[in-house]
Structures are given as structure tokens and as C-alpha cells.
Write a structure and sequence with these properties.
Blueprint: E1 4-7, H1 13-22, E2 26-30, H2 41-50, E3 56-62, H3 66-76, E4 80-84, H4 88-98, E5 101-108, H5 115-118, E6 126-131, E7 161-163, H6 172-179, E8 183-186, E9 191-193, E10 196-197, H7 199-210
Parallel strand pairs: 1-2, 1-8, 2-3, 3-4, 4-5, 5-6, 6-7
Antiparallel strand pairs: 9-10
Bound molecules: the ligand O=C(O)c1ccccc1NCC(=O)[C@H](O)[C@H](O)COP(=O)(O)O.
């Protein structure tokens, strides 16, 4: 069965073109100013114009307020919202208000961290399992950190889900096989420097996923 791909933290037309050429189903725009991948409203609008309609646009947020969500959904013509560090009740409210597909990010280091996924039942449409970044880290994602993929093996997922955290062309086949993922997300693993997407790495990642 085909494994779907989200290329996250895209901020240039070249990276969009590479993701689309590689067969990505989703492209992520980060709306979080401390991130090297942050895009503003006008930039998001211009990038969105470049994304063909069969590829879904995902806004990535850290516990956003309503004003930010509304402005970016409109500017980036977003199809889905990926919320980090956001309580399930708040996620449900944003989902109800925007009518966008809602993805709840679950930060994982130990097995008990997976309990958070259950709390998104009824509040989200999909779970993104991502590596938990260290206490006090500037970013809750996009840091190239992995977690133990074996934690997901046999886990009773409450919702459709995707695997994230420290993936790259060299390890994605192992990750998919170990976790049983049908969808993967990558950011720093297809970059040459923080926030700088590398079109060759995007192509290599997509090729590696296609061979899973
Ligand atoms: O990527 C960011 O800068 C970011 C900032 C704030 C919240 C989330 C962020 N990224 C979330 C993602 O979906 C990343 O793709 C995911 O964490 C995996 O990143 P990486 O380990 O670098 O592949």
C-alpha cells in the first residue's frame, strides 16, 4: 500500500515544486514566528497559489489564537490545521469554528506519552506522532529528533495518524516498517540548514518512501 507524504516547513516555490514532483500529498506551512520556517500571510498566499489542488495545504501552529487561525486559513487557503501544544478541547473548538480538518500533534518520548492520542478522539481527525523536544526548547517540532518507533507497533490508534520526527531518506523505510505507518512527515531531514529546504533531499526522501 502506498505511503503518503507530508513535506513540512515549506517556504519557497522551488520546495513546493519538488514536493509535488515527488508525489507529496500534503505540504505544511509553519505559522510560528520563532521557527526558521515561519511564513507570513502574504508569503503563504503566494505559496498557496503554487500548490495544485490535489495536494493539501496544512497550517502548522503552536496553540494559536482565533485571529491567527482565521487569517492564515484565509491567506493560505488551508485544508488542514496541525496543532502543537494545544489541548484537545481547544482543538475541537478550532475545528468547529473553521470546519478545517484538524490534526492533533502528540509529542512522544515514552509509551505513556501515547495516552494523549486517546484524548483527541472526537476533537481531531488525525494524530501526528512527533518526537518530544527537550523542556525549554525553542520549537516543539522540526528539530530532527526521533522517538522509538517500536512504541507505535501494535498501539490501538484512536484516529488515522502519521509518523514524524527525525525522518530522512536513509531511515524512512525502517521507520515505516517498524511503526506500521501509512503516512510520514518530514522537515529538517530534507533541509541543508534549518529552514532551508533542499530539492535533492526532497526528491530522495520521496523516492525512498515510494520504495517502502
Ligand atoms: O518545523 C517547525 O519549525 C515547527 C515549528 C513549530 C511547530 C511545529 C513545527 N514543525 C512540525 C512538523 O510537522 C515537523 O515536520 C515535524 O516536527 C518533524 O520535523 P523533523 O524532525 O525536523 O523532520
Amino acid at each position: 500500500m502506498r505511503v503518503s507524504i507530508k513535506i513540512c516547513g515549506v517556504s519557497t516555490p522551488e520546495a513546493i515544486d519538488a514536493a509535488v514532483a515527488g508525489g507529496a500529498s500534503h505540504i505544511g506551512f509553519v505559522f510560528f514566528p520563532p521557527s526558521p520556517r515561519h511564513v507570513g500571510f502574504e508569503q503563504a498566499a503566494a505559496l498557496a497559489d503554487r500548490v495544485p489542488s490535489h495536494v493539501r495545504k496544512v497550517g502548522v501552529f503552536v496553540d494559536p489564537d482565533d485571529a491567527l487561525v482565521e487569517s492564515t486559513v484565509s491567506a493560505g487557503r488551508l485544508d488542514a490545521l496541525q496543532l502543537h501544544k494545544t489541548a484537545p478541547a481547544r482543538a475541537a473548538a478550532i475545528r468547529s469554528r473553521t470546519k478545517c480538518e484538524l490534526w492533533g500533534a502528540v509529542a512522544v518520548k515514552r509509551r505513556e506519552d501515547l495516552d494523549a492520542a486517546q484524548r483527541f478522539r472526537g476533537a481531531a481527525d488525525r494524530i501526528l506522532y512527533d518526537a518530544k523536544t527537550p523542556e525549554g526548547a525553542k520549537l516543539p517540532g522540526g528539530m530532527g529528533m526521533r522517538f522509538d518507533w517500536k512504541l507505535l507497533d501494535g498501539f490501538p490508534h484512536p484516529l488515522p495518524w502519521l509518523l514524524s520526527g527525525g525522518l530522512d531518506a536513509a531511515n524512512v523505510a525502517d521507520a515505516v516498517g517498524t511503526a506500521g505507518a501509512r503516512m510520514v512527515d518530514v522537515s529538517s531531514g530534507v533541509e541543508s540548514a534549518p529552514g532551508v529546504k533542499d530539492v535533492d533531499k526532497i526528491a530522495a526522501f520521496c523516492k525512498a518512501v515510494a520504495q517502502c
